[in-house]
Amino acid sequence: MQDYKMEKIQMVDLKGQYLKIKDEVDAAIQHCIDNTAFINGPQVDEFRNGLSAYLNVKHVIPCANGTDALQIALMALSLQPGDEVIVPSFTYVATTEVIALLGLVPVMVDVDPNTFNITAELVETGITAKTKAIVPVHLFGQSANMEEIMELAAKFNLYVIEDNAQAIGSTYTFKDGRTAKTGTIGHIGTTSFFPSKNLGCYGDGGAICTNDDELGAKIKMMANHGQVKKYVHKYIGVNSRLDTLQAGILSVKLKHLDQYSDARGAAATYYDKGLAQIQGIQIPVRNPQSTHVFHQYTLLIKDGRRDELKKFLESKEVPAMIYYPIPLNHQEAFKNISKVIGNLDASTTLCQSVLSLPIHTEMQESVQDYIISVIKEFYAS
Question: Are 139 and 90 in contact (CB under 8 A)?
Fold first, then answer.
């Protein structure tokens, strides 16, 4: 293999992305500082309205982070301790953590081994008389099969909260040809603006969205101390706000979100072409009902060689990440408070097999060529 020299490869190139929009971002930050409206300044409303228009959803409630978004969404449903909420076992801890924090019971079900998302069929195995809600996670950038999940929810009178932290900008197509952005299909959608997300700020941030007027009003109050108006509190709420500075930055980046999705998609297609013929690898499987915005480009490494490949990549200065190494049903924190449906074999296998390669909006084909060549070298040895 040729001796290839380049700058340090990044899983996500936030600096390169910033430099392309530096003037816009710097102006937005300076405008906030000049006006000193650091809490609930006009940029928060501007971003709220912009995101609402982009998603084509009636209500957007910005908040402090994606975990708060999930917790506030659940609080707004007035669930009672002991009520059950169905979640995938293969996801980040925040999805399930907030369920436990509210005294609810996380019910963990397996995921589709190809798309990594829950399905209506798997969800139905976990439904009992105590089930009140389902939390589909649109993992790595594409939607779960929401049409079937919503039909199942209607059948059993359940709420659906979409965890859309990794798939903002993805579009789901229904069987009749209708389309909707992920996060707007369920009763409530939540997202995170953590810096490495597809739409990320320069700190923490999140948002909740819904088309339900009553839920929208309640969520807005819940995120602001349960307050109807100043010093008048209807609910027990929390203090969860999106900083004005972050809202200004997000308004700038929202204008570029589709371009960012296209860039990630192009990088994913380039990886596909370079890696598809390697026998020991399964490239990402696309759900035909969903566009894929590739928050992560995640391979399945066969024959138990995942950790060996990761070590080889790192020896060649190629970063690679494991999302996620331990399924939630094996986490000690949930041992005595959750229900597990079935053996969750797919989740266990995925945790032993997945490996995510660098992917971001500034990916260069020359860098991808190097990464692909390193993987080919590993399999040739």
Answer: yes
Tokens representing 65? 């982070």
Q: Which of 303, 305, 278, 298 is nearest to 355 (CA)?
A: 298
Residue 164, both tokens: 């859309």
Domain ranges in the chain?
17-254, 257-380
Q: Is the pLDDT of residue 3 over 60?
A: no
- 17-254 and 257-380 share one fold: no
207 neighbors 63 (Cβ within 8 angstroms) = yes
Mean pLDDT of 157-185: 98
The pTM is what? 0.96
Report in angstroms the alpha-carbon separations of 238 from 72, 97, 162, 186, 211: 8, 17, 21, 23, 22
Gap between the Cα atoms of 228 and 207, Å rounded: 19
Q: With bands split at pLDDT 50, 70 and 90, how would you rate the model's confidence at 281?
A: very high
Second CATH level (architecture) for the domain 17-254: 3-Layer(aba) Sandwich (3.40)
Please classify residue 89 by burial: count the beta carbons closer than 10 Å to its beta carbon, then call 0-12 exposed, 13-18 middle and 19+ buried. Answer: buried
Cβ(363)–Cβ(262) below 8 Å: no
Domain 257-380 superfamily per CATH:
Aspartate Aminotransferase, domain 1 (3.90.1150.10)
